[in-house]
Each structure stands twice: as C-alpha cells, then as structure tokens.
Amino acid sequence: MYSMKRASELLDIPVVTIRAWENRYGVIAPRRSGGGHRQLSEEDLSRLRFLKNQIEQNGLKISEAVRLLRQSDSVPPEQAAEQAAEQTTSSLTFDGLVDKLYMDLIHFNSVQADKTIDLVFALYDFEEAFRRIIVPVLYRAGAEWEAGKIVVAQEHFATETILRRLSALFRVFPVNPSLPVVLAFCPEGERHHLGLMSFSLFLRKRGAAVLYLGPDTPLKDLDGIIANHSVSFIAASVTDRCYVDKLMEWIEAAARNHPQLRFLLGGAAFDRAEWRPVKANVRYLSAEQWEDWHNA
Ligand code: B12
What is the C-alpha separation between 118 and 113, in angstroms, rounded? Predict the structure, then answer.
C-alpha cells in the first residue's frame, strides 16, 4: 500500500490532482488507515498512471482519459494486447484481423498496430487488404466515434496510423511515365478521403503518377498545379453533397482553362444517379468499373 505522498512521488502527479481525480471521477477507491489517511493499492497506481499517460502522451483531456479508462475496465489494454498477440493462425480471418487491428488502434498500441498492418499486407493482396480489413477498421472507428463509444483522439489515432501506412505505399509502386498524370483531392471542407485513397492506390499500383492532395483542398490553388505538372485527369471525391455545387463550378472553369482535362468523380455524394450532374467531360465510376476504365 502507498500513502498519498508516496504515490504522488512515484507517479509524479501532485497530491491535489490525485485527490481531484478521485473526488470528481471516482477513478480510485483508496482504503483508509487507522488514522484516516488514504492507502493506495497497486491497482490505484496503475489506474492513475494510465490517466497520466493518456493525458501526456496522447493529448487526451482528463474527461476523455477517464472515459477510456472506464471502457478498458472491461478489457484492460495490457490484456487486449496480450489477447491479440496470442491469436493463432486460425483466427487470422478478415473479421479476426479487423478486430485485432481495431483494438490495437483504440488502445494507442502503435507498435502492435504496425505489426498487425504488416501481417495484413503479408497475408493479402493490398486491394483485398484495403477493402476487407483497412476500410472496415476505419469505418468502425468513425461509427464508434459518432456513437460516442470512443473519443475523438482514438478515432484520429486510428485514422492517422492507417493513412500514414497507406501513404507509404504510394512510393512503393513504380511510375510508368507513359500513363497520364492524375490529380486527386477532396474539395475544401470534405474530410472523408478513404475512397479517394483507395482509387488513387488502385491507379498507383498500375503505374499512374498520382498527385495526391487528400482531404479539404482549396480549389483556388489547383490551376497552377495542373499546368505545371501536365495533369490530364482530375479524380475528386465528395461524401457530403453540400460540397458538390462549388466543385462543379470549379470543374467548369478548369475545363475552360485546360480543355484537355477529364474529370472522374466518386464518393457517397454521387451514389445515386439523380445526384450526378451531367457533363460531357465528367465520369462517375463504381469500383466494379475501375478496371475496365483503366484498361480502355
Ligand atoms: C470514417 C468516417 C469519418 C472519418 C473520416 C476519416 C477519413 N480520413 O476519411 C471522420 C471521423 C474524420 C469523419 C468525420 C465526419 N463525418 Co464521417 N463518416 C465516416 C464513415 C463511418 C465511413 C466513411 C468511409 O470512409 N467509407 C469508406 C469509403 C471507402 O467509402 P466511399 O467514400 O463511399 O468510397 C467508395 C466509393 O464511393 C468510391 N469513391 C470514393 N471516392 C472516389 C473518387 C473517385 C475519383 C472514384 C473513381 C471513386 C471514389 O470508392 C470507394 C470504394 O468503393 C461514414 C459512415 C458511413 N456509413 O459511410 C461517416 C459519414 C460519411 N460521416 C458523416 C458526417 C456527418 C461526418 C462529420 C460532419 C461528423 C461531425 N459531426 O463532425 C465529420 C466531418 C466530415 C467532413 N467535414 O468532411 C456522415 C455524412 C452525412 C452526409 N451529409 O453525407 C456519415 C454518412 C455518417 C452518418 N451516418 O451520418 N467521418
């Protein structure tokens, strides 16, 4: 058992802070000594250490760290990592890998998450890995965040860890200079870029040079890039339909300035046929049509 003062020294957390976390959030339940002094257990120390790490290393607010602690009370992070490490080859199914990677990520276990991603890409062709494992993990992170089951820092960590690994793939595939240069972006405001990333990696794997600008791209900056880099295709992705009108205005102006440009649009904003503005130089491709379009 540890006195308050000793726990404070060991953890480098002021006594007043430990008291505040105890009183406000009830995160520890120290026993009282005969003299009425608090006696903290190993378990109390480990819970306080967990909160401190989440705040200092992962930038969480105390309320978020407490939520994460409560959530991990059912499955402690150490146990989750152990369980994941103990998985046998029979559980390396798509669903098993989705669960494993998701747990690694929401517990900020970046070393384990990187190992799981290595395993995913070693076991499966990257398009299959992307569609059956990576997207479902990010999908789950987005959905659980929206449902309030994980905090924004967990969602960001999951998304950023995966996107960092996917971006690295851009450099792996060699560029075929005879293929057209593609400029890929989501217009200003639009942050959903997994679909765009998926299509861009599809093109990169087949040798196309893709200038990937990603989410939330200001449209006014694009003219110079198109001219300086001999861009012939624009690939744009929109999820929220509120961004479509501005994009179509920009497409009209860009087509006037660069008559050679062709436009490929995708994303949930164009899922239904009646949501797709009709223009001669604009095409909408479903994932089933990508290969046919590329081979044409
Ligand atoms: C993950 C996710 C997020 C992540 C995004 C991570 C990232 N870096 O991309 C984060 C957490 C950041 C996020 C944020 C928000 N989100 Co969100 N999010 C999702 C979620 C769960 C999954 C979306 C996804 O990635 N799908 C997987 C991809 C691969 O699918 P896809 O984009 O359709 O792409 C496919 C095709 O369309 C095509 N494609 C896509 N682009 C292109 C481009 C080209 C050229 C081609 C050829 C093909 C192509 O290829 C893909 C494969 O088939 C959905 C829920 C859902 N049911 O979809 C909500 C959802 C999209 N989000 C939504 C909302 C409202 C938001 C927020 C506004 C929430 C908030 N309150 O702040 C914010 C901010 C969004 C913004 N400003 O853009 C709403 C959108 C509603 C709408 N108006 O349309 C959804 C539908 C949730 C809901 N049920 O309300 N989100």
Answer: 9
Q: How many domains does the chain have?
A: 3
| Threshold 0.85, pTM exceeds | no
59 and 146 in a single domain? The answer is no
89-123 residue pLDDT tens? 435 688 889 999 999 999 999 899 999 998 888 88
CA 185–ligand 1 middle distance (angstroms): 14
Residue 226 token pair? 């198109």
CA of 183 to the centre of ligand 1 (A): 20
Angle, helix 4-11 to helix 42-58, in steps of 10 degrees: 40
Report residues whose beta carbon is within 6 angstroms of any ligand 1 atom: 135, 138-139, 142-143, 145, 155, 159, 189-196, 198-199, 235, 237, 239-240, 264-268, 285, 287
Q: Which domain holds residue 36?
A: 2-74
How is 186-231 classified by DSSP, letter by letter?
A: EETT----HHHHHHHHHHHHTT--EEEEEEEE-GGGHHHHHHHTTE
Spell out the SS3 assignment of 3-33.
EHHHHHHHHCCCHHHHHHHHHHHCCCCCEEC
The best mutation among 127, 167, 239 to test binding of ligand 1, ranked by most ligand atoms within 8 Å of the C-beta, falls on 239
Probe ligand 1: pick from 146, 160, 261, max atoms within 8 Å of CB? 146
Percent of the chain having pLDDT more than 90?
A: 44
Residue nearest to atom 32 of ligand 1 (CA): 195
- Each residue of 177-196: pLDDT tens digit? 999 999 999 999 999 998 89
Same structural domain for residues 141 and 188? no
- Give the residue, by CA position, lying nearest to ligand 1 atom 50: 195
CATH number at residue 242: 3.40.50.280
